[in-house]
Design brief:
Blueprint: E1 11-15, H1 20-31, E2 35-40, H2 43-54, E3 62-67, H3 73-86, E4 92-95, H4 113-138, E5 145-150, H5 174-196, E6 201-206, H6 221-229, H7 236-247, E7 258-260, E8 263-265, H8 274-290
Parallel strand pairs: 1-2, 1-4, 2-3, 4-5, 5-6, 6-7
Antiparallel strand pairs: 7-8
């Protein structure tokens, strides 16, 4: 049964909500009385998350799931349409879904999957939900409506995009592709913060740390070994930061910042390149137009 959301309670959309950081974030928000729409890829994990997180609902909150594969932009458009049909407001969008792969994977739409899931999908989802975000922002104090991106310190390991081949279609390495995608999260956040400021919408990015989750399941041997040897934190820790960014006044001011454990950090210089942020936006729009989105 599809949950009916109430217009007088805050609503969040959390992608990657079937496990890990996303599931923990969704659970913490519904425990505060929020209404949350989670997005996940795997049907069984989505069903399990819906059962588990619904049990955490408090004070009139609610939870529901939408299933979508974020490597496919047609699925992103469908998910956005489902979200728009379920709620008349959207206070916070948490773009958390992503991941790393062990080899180049070109989707049926002709897009490299790491770039698709980590950058192009959240870019498109945000664009498709922007009318709902704007509508909500118009009736709330400035900075109440927020778009949050889960990036990574991995962005520090790249020197930027080859604009002749931003998806790394011609020269691909799994880890390098992931690092560029995480750089894209910050560049997108900064450009979104600039563009959405007039609508009183704030965009922020954060680094979750090395999280004990299924993140590296599809990564190459080097990535799996790195994750196995690293000192990890449970998903609850970055989820606490995301909930804080979603609900605390600090998260609603001075958009375009990069946080780690509720503290502002300075990202790598390449992530502060405003010209690159503007170009990435234009390249993303061009690619989506070529896909008919």
């Amino acid at each position: 049964m599809t949950l009916t959301f109430e217009a007088d309670r805050p609503v969040a959309v959390v992608t990657g909500a079937s496990s890990g950081i996303g599931a923990s974030t969704a659970e913490k928000l519904v425990a505060r009385g929020w209404q949350v729409i989670g997005v996940g890829r795997d049907l069984q994990r989505c069903a399990a998350a819906r059962t588990r997180i619904t049990a955490a609902v408090r004070d009139g909150g609610g939870f529901d799931m939408v299933r979508a594969d974020f490597t496919l932009m047609t699925e992103v458009v469908r998910a956005a349409a489902e979200i728009n049909s379920r709620t008349t407001r959207l206070d916070v969008l948490v773009n958390n879904a992503g991941g790393v792969r062990d080899r180049q994977n070109i989707t049926a739409e002709g897009v490299e999957a790491t770039f698709a899931a980590n950058h192009l999908a959240p870019f498109l989802l945000t664009r498709e939900l922007m009318p709902l975000l704007r509508k909500s922002a118009a009736g709330l104090p400035s900075g109440s409506v927020r778009v949050l991106a889960v990036s990574s310190s991995a962005h520090r390991a790249t020197d930027g995009f080859d604009w002749a081949d931003p998806q790394s279609l011609n020269e691909f390495h799994p880890t390098a592709a992931y690092c560029r995608a995480k750089l894209a999260n910050i560049l997108f956040t900064r450009e979104l913060a600039r563009r959405a400021a007039a609508d009183r919408i704030v965009a922020q990015a954060m680094h979750p740390g090395v999280v004990a989750s299924n993140f590296a399941t599809h990564g190459d041997a080097a990535m799996r070994a790195h994750m196995a040897a690293a000192d990890t934190v449970p998903p609850d820790e970055p989820a606490d930061t995301l909930v804080w960014l979603a609900t605390d006044p600090e998260g609603g001011r001075d958009g375009g910042r990069y946080f780690y454990r509720k503290t502002v950090e300075t990202p790598a210089p390449v992530a502060l390149d405003d010209a690159a942020a503007t170009r990435l936006w234009a390249e993303s729009e061009r690619l989506l137009a070529d896909l008919g989105c």
